Amino acid sequence: MEDAVDAALDEMDDNSLLKPFLVENKAEVKRMCITEYDEERTMAEKISEGEHKRAVTVALTMLKNGESVEKTNLYSGLPIEEVIALSKQVKTVPV
Fold first, then answer.
1. How many Å apart are CA 62 and CA 73, to the nearest integer?
2. 19-47 pLDDT, tens digit each
3. pTM for the full model?
């Protein structure tokens, strides 16, 4: 990431209004780039969020179709506490 910052600054037009500021604060810019955005972690979190949403959808479908909390836990992979909470939501939703 640090090399990318150097390369971007090297390619930036010398007449750019931002270039003097970025060059003067290069260390801070590099630190921010490294700590503020970790692409690998961000993508893993997005995948994880998507997987969780799919698991919740599976669990809700199973519970609405009368499956047990235990079987829903097994097939969805969600923690039992979350499946129990979802089952309470399903029971309170008018059919």
1. 10
2. 898 889 888 888 777 766 677 777 777 77
3. 0.53
Q: Give the rounded distance of the alpha carbon of 1 from its chain centre.
A: 21
Enumerate residues 6+ apart whose C-beta is below 8 A from 9.
19, 22, 23, 26
Instruction: Give the residue extent of every domain in the chain.
Output: 1-37, 50-95
Q: What confidence tens digit (pLDDT) does each residue in 48-60 have?
A: 888 999 999 999 9
CA distance 84 to 66: 13
75 contacts: CB under 8 Å, gap ≥ 6: 58, 59, 62, 67
